[in-house]
Design goal:
By secondary structure, this protein is an alpha+beta fold. It is elongated and about 55 Å long.
Length: 57
């Protein structure tokens, strides 16, 4: 029998850094339609994906 060694990441006092919050805010300013996806790993934001839609009509 094997022992499960996967442990959750330790909790940090700061959930999202000011730098990450600024990047999130900057990514949606001026965007009218679309999505922003945050990729989380080990309780940290590691990637931001922005998909903007431009309506022609």
């Amino acid at each position: 029998m094997t022992k499960n060694t996967n442990k959750p990441a330790p909790k940090s006092e700061e959930v999202i850094s000011d730098e990450v919050l600024e990047k999130i805010e900057k990514s949606f300013k001026g965007m009218l339609h679309g999505t922003i996806t945050l990729i989380i790993q080990d309780s940290r934001v590691i990637q931001l994906e922005k998909h903007e839609k431009i309506r022609l009509v």
